[in-house]
Structures are given as C-alpha cells and as structure tokens.
Design brief:
The protein is α+β, with helices and mostly antiparallel strands. Helix content is 31%, strand content 26%. The protein has 3 helices and 9 strands, in the order H-H-E-E-E-H-E-E-E-E-E-E. The protein has helices at residues 14-62, 83-102, 141-148; strands at 106-109, 115-124, 129-134, 153-156, 164-169, 190-195, 200-211, 227-234, 241-248. The longest helix has 49 residues, at 14-62. The protein starts with 13 loop residues before the first helix and ends with a strand.
Length: 250
Amino acid sequence: MNQILITKKLYVTPELKRKKKIYKIDFIVSVFLVIALISFYLFATYSRAKEEGVAKDILTSLNVEEEGDSSNTEKLIVALDKEAEEEKQNKENQQKIASVNSKKRKTVKTPDGQEYTSLATVYIPSINVKYPVLLPAAQTTEAIESILKVSPCKFWGPEVNEVGNFCIVGHNYRNTKFFSKVPTLSNGDIIEVTGVDGRKVNYAVYDKYTVQPEDVSCTSQLTNGRKEVTLITCTDDSSLRWIIKAREVK
C-alpha cells in the first residue's frame, strides 16, 4: 500500500525571527560575561598571590634572630629644675628616642625594586599565619590601603613591643591569605610579635568582637601600663570590623 507522506511546512513569522535573534544575542552576551567574570577572578587570584609573594620576600629579608622578651627598655629621665635644662634635656631625649626608634625599623628592598619599612613580624601559631608588619608612608587612608595590598601594617600605637596598644590591620580575603583566618582566633591563643631588633613578646588573646567601620575605640592607648596588641580586619561581608585584643604574657 502506498503511503503518502505529507510534510507540513513551518511558516517563520517576522516575530519568530526577531525572538530568535534576541535569544542568539542573549546567549553571546551571557558567554562573554561568564568569560569576563572568570578572567577577573583569575586575575584577582593572581594579583593576591603576587602581593603575598612580596610579603614573603620581605619576611625572608628580615631574617632577625629572636632575643626573647625584654622588659628592661631604656627609660628617659627629664630634668625639671630649670627651663634651660629642660630644653637641653628634651632635645637629648628626642635624639635618643629617634636613635632607639630607628633600630626598630628596617628598610627592605624587594626583588621588584620597591622599598618597604618593616617594624616586626607577627606570627600566630594556632592558625599558621606569619607576615611582616609594615609601616605606611603616612597615616592616611590612601597610604594604608596601598601598603595593605602587600602585607598587614601598623595602624596606630607605640613602637613595637612597648607599653601601649600596638594596632595591626590586615585584609580579609575570605581564604587563607593575610588576616583571613584571624576572626577564628579564640581567647588564650598566642600572638608572637618580633621586632626587627630581634626582641620577641608573646601576647594572649583576651577579647574578640565586631564594630562599625568608623568605630576606632579599639585603638585606645589606655592599657594601664601594659603591652597590648590589637588585630583589625573586615568581616566576610566587609560590613563590620573584627577586633582581636591580646595582652602580653609574662
């Protein structure tokens, strides 16, 4: 028996052509966006790895030998009997302070030719974090943000391992880099700070909390004569700041 096959021709309307064209454009745009996002992610990952590499270069260049804790730091006594004597003594004190402070800072030149001023190394055994603590070129947001791309840096406070509250700020990249793991610290965890002069002081965490970005009360220098360290980093969503407070272990 003969079978007659009847093919029904689909009529392509102008509206269908227009929709087909739109779908095609949407597909191309989607592919382009996916490629762009992947490229951005890879570039950001590479940049952060490169920046951490600079921090490791600085850490290697420091290579200081630890001398252990030393509480007998030089004390400057100012004579208060006469104005002339005061002025003379103050000038001598300033020169001594400048001399002492210069020994607590070290300029390091990395393989890329950049120079950085390092104050110390911070090592946190419980989360296996170790970085140099750099000194920003100036106490401005721009200078601090610039140096934070390379390593954690001093935010506020006295010289390293002296009486007062030495504040260190670092980025939270939500991975294992820089201060990303700092929010996991608990009370009792040890933070080792070794100055470029080789003097090391251990600090034990005693408090952890979050604050608004504009709240800088954590930088207070009212430590009742004790040596303290404060670590500062962002929360994972960058809406708040984690504050980790630690006090010298004697």
